[in-house]
Amino acid sequence: MAVALLGLRSGSKGIANKNIKPLHGKPLFYWVLSTIFKSSFFSSVVVSSDSSIYLDLVRTYFPQSILRLRPPSIATDESSEYEYILDAVNWCEVNSLYSLDDPIFCRFHATSPFQTCDDIERTIMKLRNHPIADSSVLLRPSPIHPEKTVLIRSVNSIDVAVGAIGMNCQSVTPTNRQQLQTYYVRSNIICFRRSTIDTGTLTGEVCLPVVTRSRCHVDIDDELDFKFAEFLMSSPIDFLSAFTNL
């Protein structure tokens, strides 16, 4: 059995209290936690936050969650995700939340409300079935191809547009979509072994790719993302059932 880790930082700069902002009548964190608890792969679900108010709200909806209030030293604006995960992993060890020598942990984000049980189970099984791997990561095709992105550089005191891949003006020239290689972005599930965290990263040297089969993804970052997610959940088509019960 694996251990699920969900971080709920309270200091969002773009949207105040983003992780508890209501989405379809529930706090944002509710949706990914609901899917985590539907999965049969976790022996423990640990929620880490710098806010006791957030943790109390989690307890209201998911009393079976294991709650970790982060130490102030890793609850600053400069604190990294790795720091809270290392703290949570060590805390799980001290409190005997797992019995295996090298268990699997899975890191989630509340900002991915359409994560599915299929996403979770395939990402865990990919790592479990490859003993030499350090981690596995859920991916989805990138909505913006890197060869379509452009940087602005100063050349001889003149701002010019250069392609992000070729780093020259010629590479700004469009390429037919059919000729482009497929690129991927992380889809907010990373599974890793206990030993991997000791490398100073979540992924180590061998990270296995798992491409999501879901076509519905919203990464909540601003108010427009909230509106789009609300639209999907309120649609006459039952997106909520379609994308959480795969």
Question: Could you write a compact summary of the structure shown?
Answer:
This protein has 246 residues and is α/β, with parallel strands linked by helices. It has helices spanning 28-38, 52-61, 81-94, 117-128, 223-234, 239-244; strands at residues 2-8, 22-23, 26-27, 42-49, 66-69, 104-109, 135-141, 150-155, 158-163, 184-193, 207-211.
What is the fold's blueprint, element by element?
Elements: E1 2-8, E2 22-23, E3 26-27, H1 28-38, E4 42-49, H2 52-61, E5 66-69, H3 81-94, E6 104-109, H4 117-128, E7 135-141, E8 150-155, E9 158-163, E10 184-193, E11 207-211, H5 223-234, H6 239-244
Parallel strand pairs: 1-4, 1-6, 4-5, 7-11
Antiparallel strand pairs: 2-3, 6-10, 7-10, 8-9
Structure keywords:
Spore Coat Polysaccharide Biosynthesis Protein SpsA, Chain A; 26% helix; 26% strand; 2 domains; alpha/beta; 246 residues; single chain; two-stranded antiparallel sheet; seven-stranded mixed sheet
